[in-house]
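Quick start: read one record
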Amino acid sequence: MNRPNDTDAALAVDLDDAEYKAIDALACCKFASFGYWAGVWVHLNRISGQKRRNPFISLVHRARRLRSTY
């Protein structure tokens, strides 16, 4: 059985932290900070191999719908 090692656990914590910081920044209208932390989340997800579902996907879909109205 494969058990997660310390690096996997640390990456999982860092992913959760980046997600929280991105959402918190967006809630405070700190858009540059949101972009930074969302990018950190994407990078950590990629290198961790966890392949978590992007927590920002609903925001992406909403932005695409808004863009199509312009």
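The mean pLDDT is 93.
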